Hints:
The chain has a single domain (about 15-254), classed as Zn-dependent exopeptidases (Aminopeptidase). The protein is α/β, with parallel strands linked by helices. Strand 7 (about 160) and strand 8 (about 160-165) form a beta hairpin. Helices cover about 30% and strands about 20% of the residues. The protein is globular. The longest helix has 28 residues, at about 115-140.
Amino acid sequence: MTEPVLCPADPAPVTLIGPPLAPGPLLFLGDHAGALIPRSLGTLGVGEADRRRHIALDIGVGQLGRLLAEHFGATFVSQTYSRLVVDCNRDPFSADAMPHVSDGTAIPGNRDLSGEARAARIAAIHEPYHRAIADLLDERRVAGLPTILVALHSFTPVFGAEERPWQAGVIHGGPGSDYGRRVLAGLRQVPGLTVGDNQPYAFDDTDYTVPRHAFPNALQWLEIEIRQDLLEADDQVAEVARWLAPVLQAAMEG
Length: 254
């Protein structure tokens, strides 16, 4: 029998920050906000430096989500565990949900996983995170509260040999992306900001969170990427929140 992924001493796989029934529509999500690895999995064979890199988490998103939730009096649904354990923005049964290699770094603890071991990670971490989002959306719907999903991500300034010039990028596509397009237009008006239109990533069938929760509920949504060198220190994160929050607000009104 497979050992339980989480033990009683491990933190819960998801944290809700802020009031769940906030009257404002924005609901912030952090699919890759956390960097912890369950005690049962050790380090997955990954060195400490790599466990701090973008391969393990979206750097800065945990703090950015907290600041934005505080600013708007909104809820931030924050995932606790590293994307190397299981990627909560991927179909849990896809190969890249538990990658063997990420940006050139081998992940030994993800090699030769049995179906039972994969299912145990999904049940312990991936599904509770998405169930928390679904339950929150149900509560808000029953209360008659509108919701706009805002999925927060960050990206490395250099990936492989590619340098990324954008400080922020808006990912959009499919139903409900009008809000995201308005945010894109607003970000383009921020002085000195280089903004990617479906850059550095385009919306495609590898995305999981938005199609699972926004599409069937006919919700407006935004998936935003912030370059990680803008999110390395608390004062930098606060500066990003300072210019991002008015754009999110204006897009709700426009």
